[in-house]
Amino acid sequence: xxxxxxxxxxxxxxxxxxxxxxxxxxxxxxxxxxxxxxxxxxxxxxxxxxxxxxxxxxxxxxxxxxxxxxxxxxxxxxxxxxxxxxxxxxxxxxxxxxxxxxxxxxxxxxxxxx
Length: 114
Hints:
The chain is 82% helix and 0% strand. With 114 residues, it is mostly helical. The two termini are 16 Å apart.
Protein backbone atom coordinates (compact mmCIF):
# COMPACT_ATOMS: atom_id res chain seq x y z
CA UNK A 1 0.00 0.00 0.00
CA UNK A 2 2.84 2.42 0.76
CA UNK A 3 4.30 1.95 -2.73
CA UNK A 4 1.04 3.37 -4.04
CA UNK A 5 0.55 6.07 -1.42
CA UNK A 6 4.03 7.62 -1.48
CA UNK A 7 4.05 8.68 -5.17
CA UNK A 8 0.52 10.04 -4.84
CA UNK A 9 1.49 12.17 -1.85
CA UNK A 10 4.67 13.33 -3.58
CA UNK A 11 2.73 14.45 -6.65
CA UNK A 12 0.00 16.00 -4.56
CA UNK A 13 2.26 17.94 -2.20
CA UNK A 14 5.36 18.68 -4.29
CA UNK A 15 3.92 18.90 -7.78
CA UNK A 16 3.35 16.98 -10.98
CA UNK A 17 6.18 14.65 -11.92
CA UNK A 18 7.66 13.99 -8.48
CA UNK A 19 5.56 10.87 -7.96
CA UNK A 20 6.59 9.64 -11.39
CA UNK A 21 10.24 10.06 -10.41
CA UNK A 22 9.55 7.93 -7.31
CA UNK A 23 7.94 5.30 -9.56
CA UNK A 24 11.14 5.33 -11.66
CA UNK A 25 9.32 6.82 -14.66
CA UNK A 26 12.08 9.37 -15.18
CA UNK A 27 11.15 10.55 -18.68
CA UNK A 28 7.48 11.11 -17.80
CA UNK A 29 8.37 12.74 -14.48
CA UNK A 30 10.84 15.10 -16.12
CA UNK A 31 8.32 16.06 -18.79
CA UNK A 32 5.65 16.81 -16.19
CA UNK A 33 8.05 18.91 -14.12
CA UNK A 34 9.19 20.83 -17.22
CA UNK A 35 5.58 21.36 -18.33
CA UNK A 36 4.68 22.69 -14.87
CA UNK A 37 7.65 25.02 -14.82
CA UNK A 38 6.82 26.17 -18.36
CA UNK A 39 3.23 26.99 -17.42
CA UNK A 40 4.36 28.79 -14.25
CA UNK A 41 6.98 30.77 -16.18
CA UNK A 42 4.52 31.75 -18.91
CA UNK A 43 1.97 32.76 -16.26
CA UNK A 44 4.56 34.82 -14.38
CA UNK A 45 5.62 36.65 -17.55
CA UNK A 46 2.02 37.32 -18.53
CA UNK A 47 1.10 38.47 -15.01
CA UNK A 48 4.04 40.85 -14.75
CA UNK A 49 3.23 42.39 -18.13
CA UNK A 50 -0.45 42.70 -17.27
CA UNK A 51 0.34 44.29 -13.89
CA UNK A 52 2.81 46.76 -15.39
CA UNK A 53 -0.06 48.85 -16.75
CA UNK A 54 -1.54 49.36 -13.29
CA UNK A 55 1.67 49.96 -11.32
CA UNK A 56 2.62 53.50 -10.30
CA UNK A 57 5.66 55.22 -11.85
CA UNK A 58 7.58 54.91 -8.58
CA UNK A 59 7.91 51.14 -8.23
CA UNK A 60 9.43 51.52 -4.74
CA UNK A 61 6.09 52.69 -3.37
CA UNK A 62 4.40 49.37 -4.18
CA UNK A 63 3.71 47.19 -1.15
CA UNK A 64 2.22 43.72 -0.87
CA UNK A 65 -1.35 44.94 -0.26
CA UNK A 66 -1.23 47.27 -3.27
CA UNK A 67 -0.02 44.44 -5.47
CA UNK A 68 -2.79 42.16 -4.19
CA UNK A 69 -5.38 44.86 -4.95
CA UNK A 70 -3.98 45.32 -8.45
CA UNK A 71 -4.13 41.61 -9.17
CA UNK A 72 -7.57 41.01 -7.64
CA UNK A 73 -9.16 44.31 -8.66
CA UNK A 74 -7.84 44.82 -12.16
CA UNK A 75 -6.04 41.87 -13.66
CA UNK A 76 -8.47 39.12 -12.67
CA UNK A 77 -11.41 41.34 -13.60
CA UNK A 78 -10.00 42.63 -16.89
CA UNK A 79 -8.29 39.41 -18.02
CA UNK A 80 -10.51 36.74 -16.48
CA UNK A 81 -10.24 34.22 -19.31
CA UNK A 82 -6.45 34.31 -19.51
CA UNK A 83 -6.00 34.21 -15.73
CA UNK A 84 -8.26 31.21 -15.25
CA UNK A 85 -6.90 29.44 -18.35
CA UNK A 86 -3.44 29.36 -16.78
CA UNK A 87 -4.98 28.19 -13.51
CA UNK A 88 -6.93 25.44 -15.28
CA UNK A 89 -3.88 24.25 -17.25
CA UNK A 90 -1.84 23.89 -14.08
CA UNK A 91 -4.74 22.27 -12.22
CA UNK A 92 -5.33 19.72 -14.97
CA UNK A 93 -1.62 18.92 -15.11
CA UNK A 94 -1.56 18.51 -11.32
CA UNK A 95 -4.58 16.17 -11.27
CA UNK A 96 -3.10 14.16 -14.14
CA UNK A 97 0.18 13.87 -12.23
CA UNK A 98 -1.56 12.57 -9.10
CA UNK A 99 -3.69 10.04 -11.00
CA UNK A 100 -0.76 8.86 -13.08
CA UNK A 101 1.42 8.54 -9.96
CA UNK A 102 -1.28 6.33 -8.44
CA UNK A 103 -1.52 4.17 -11.56
CA UNK A 104 2.27 3.94 -11.74
CA UNK A 105 2.36 2.85 -8.11
CA UNK A 106 -0.21 0.16 -8.82
CA UNK A 107 1.80 -1.06 -11.84
CA UNK A 108 4.99 -1.04 -9.74
CA UNK A 109 3.34 -3.01 -6.92
CA UNK A 110 1.85 -5.54 -9.35
CA UNK A 111 5.19 -6.07 -11.06
CA UNK A 112 6.82 -6.85 -7.69
CA UNK A 113 4.08 -9.32 -6.75
CA UNK A 114 4.32 -11.40 -9.93
